[in-house]
Amino acid sequence: MKLSPKQRAFADNFIKSGNKYQSAIEAGYSKNYARSHAEKLSENVGIKSYIAERMKRIESDKIAKAAEVLQYFTTVLRGEAKETIIVSTPDGADAVENEPSIKDRMAAGRELLKRYPGNDELLNAQLTKIITDIEKTKADVRKSKAEADIMEAKAKLLTDAGAQDRTVIVDDVPEDD
After folding, report:
1. CA 129, CA 104: separation in Å to the nearest integer?
2. Domain residues for 19?
3. What is the pLDDT of residues 20-50, one digit of tens each?
4. 53 and 18 within one domain
5. Is the dihedral of CA 11, 14, 20, 23 positive or negative?
6. Residues 6+ apart with CB under 8 A from 90
């Protein structure tokens, strides 16, 4: 079935925007006609066929497949995805790699959960455990770094050239049981 230029323009605009009303207006139909006939235009067999054919041609490696989307959500959830941000410094600007925030990880987890109906409670528990483990690991790393910084500062005090002329009291660092 051959489409009129307006019908073809409607279909092309609809593929881009997904908005029937706006696509009809951009194709040259009046606002009144678009308001009352946009739905009918999208139901037209010729237009539907044209859209289906165009979508087949458009579909390619540039369009993410479902598995790719799920893999990306998983990398965000696990904190493997990184976001590069530019930070202003006194020397200019530096690029910094940031992990996804807890909010981003939770959103990715919810998106994954939507695709697995019926497993909500189990997956929600697993998601909570993963995020709790990540936060605990981050806290442990911060604690270890702080302890190492303290020990380094104490060692520096003891090895400074002027340390022989003064008394340095080093507190015992409590051992975790």
Report:
1. 16
2. 5-58
3. 999 999 999 999 999 999 889 888 999 999 9
4. yes
5. negative
6. none
